[in-house]
Amino acid sequence: MFDHARTVVCGNSLKDRCQSAAVASAMQYFGKSVPLEHIICCTTDPEYASFGIWPRTINAAFEHGFQAYLDRFRDWDAVRKTVAENQVILCSITMPAGNEYIAPR
């Protein structure tokens, strides 16, 4: 059995590497398979021993020939429009506390 929590790549375990996995999946969707281990090495910041920050994630996609940029969506209509244009959105979402979340329609 493969144990992601105990597998170390570029000084980081494979556990909880969501942004690296997301960018690898997006690139595969558009026809370029890059091993997750390679993406993790691209997204790890060795100076601060940090991984998965969005600018490094975007740079990993850019270095593999993809147009990538950081944006902010203020409403669900903007998200729908972007997806309708066949663009992939890799995102972090801050959920409100309690029961204040309103699902998109």
What does this structure look like?
By secondary structure, the chain is mostly helical. It has a domain at 4-69. It is built from four helices and two strands. It has helices spanning 18-29, 36-43, 54-63, 76-84; strands at residues 8-9, 12-13. It has a two-stranded antiparallel sheet. Strand 1 (8-9) and strand 2 (12-13) form a beta hairpin. The longest helix has 12 residues, at 18-29.
Structural key phrases:
105 residues; mainly alpha; two-stranded antiparallel sheet; 4 helices; 37% helix; globular
Spans where pLDDT lies below 50 across 5 or more residues: 1-5
Reported for the largest beta sheet, the result is: 2 strands, antiparallel
- Tally of extended strands? 2
The pLDDT mean sits at 79
Gyration radius from CA atoms, angstroms: 16 Å
Order of helices and strands: EEHHHH
Summarize the structure.
The chain is 37% helix and 4% strand. With 105 residues, it is mainly alpha-helical. The protein has a domain at 4-69.
Topology:
Blueprint: E1 8-9, E2 12-13, H1 18-29, H2 36-43, H3 54-63, H4 76-84
Antiparallel strand pairs: 1-2
